[in-house]
Recover the amino acids of this structure.
């Protein structure tokens, strides 16, 4: 049986902070802790959480822009960490990335057409005619006029720049695109346009997305499944519909309660949590959420909860809401 397009197994990323030669226990930032998930062809998996939860680090690990401390990232069954530089270069044709800031992710000295076709020219030489034809085709695919190809990024709006970034990512016909806060720097009206564009591209080309965001409104609009992260770990993973209709983990409840609701008559699921996210250098023992959790028990303070399957198919890491007897 064919496996998932992307499979992440027990991913860990620690960043040493260094220390003197007499420091027996050097400090370490535990950015990502034992993260596992999969993405199917044509699916959008959203990763959400507060700032510092590790979601952008996951994006960098997926692209191997950063090396994992432990764990594997399997793209179409191949562990990208095992690839040498040449094989990794070829493998990146199948997985591309759209970055958060359209003002800094484009080379200011290149025209939009050059930016879009540059990834392809890393693999094959294009004549001027073919280069311009490809740029025009991709610009039209992302809803821009072909004439845009002759403009510099400084001549484009934020929404146009991000569309150029998406066109660049599509130029190599990838199977999956990692979008790290791809609309957070844009105005709300432009956000909606970009989100609808991504959904249209997915329907037309069958490309999968890992969409990283802190905006639950955006996630609810575009996602098929959602992974909720807290302090480097996934605490709930469910279908988008199930997660927003009935969040199970107390942290998920709190995130949804804190998000602005377009329907002000709808009661929140829970009272928004208070306090700050603990330090990833010295995380709490047991469940990392227990210092802020209104349901915390003694077990939560000493034992890390495992992601437990629930009867509806979701995974939840909570001793109270997802005890072992609730698993399937």
């Amino acid at each position: 049986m064919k496996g998932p397009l992307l499979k992440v197994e027990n991913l860990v990323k620690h960043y040493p902070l260094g220390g003197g030669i007499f420091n027996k226990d050097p400090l370490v930032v535990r950015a990502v802790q034992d993260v596992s998930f999969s993405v199917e062809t044509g699916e959008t998996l959203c990763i959400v959480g507060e700032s510092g939860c590790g979601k952008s680090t996951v994006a960098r690990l997926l692209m191997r822009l950063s090396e994992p401390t432990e764990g594997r990232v399997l793209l179409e069954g191949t562990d990208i960490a095992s690839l040498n530089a040449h094989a990794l270069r070829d493998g990146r044709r199948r997985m591309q990335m759209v970055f958060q800031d359209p003002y800094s992710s484009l080379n200011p000295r290149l025209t939009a057409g050059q930016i879009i076709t540059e990834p392809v020219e890393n693999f094959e030489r294009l004549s001027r005619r073919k280069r311009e034809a490809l740029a025009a085709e991709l610009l039209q695919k992302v809803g821009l006029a072909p004439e845009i190809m002759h403009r510099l990024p400084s001549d484009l709006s934020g929404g146009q720049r991000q569309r150029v970034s998406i066109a660049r990512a599509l130029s190599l016909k990838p199977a999956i695109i990692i979008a790290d806060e791809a609309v957070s720097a844009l105005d709300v009206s432009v956000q909606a346009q970009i989100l609808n564009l991504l959904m249209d591209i997915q329907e037309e080309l069958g490309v999968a997305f890992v969409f990283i965001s802190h905006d639950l409104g955006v996630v609810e609009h575009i996602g098929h499944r959602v992974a909720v992260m807290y302090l480097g770990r996934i605490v709930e993973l469910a279908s988008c519909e199930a997660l927003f209709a009935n969040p199970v983990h107390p942290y998920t409840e709190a995130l949804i309660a804190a998000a602005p609701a377009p329907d002000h008559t709808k009661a929140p699921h829970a009272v928004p949590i208070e306090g700050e996210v603990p330090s990833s250098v010295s995380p709490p023992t047991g469940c990392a959420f227990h210092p802020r959790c209104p349901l915390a028990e003694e077990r939560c303070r000493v034992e890390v909860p495992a992601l437990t399957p629930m009867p509806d198919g979701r995974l939840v890491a909570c001793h109270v809401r997802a005890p072992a007897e609730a698993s399937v």
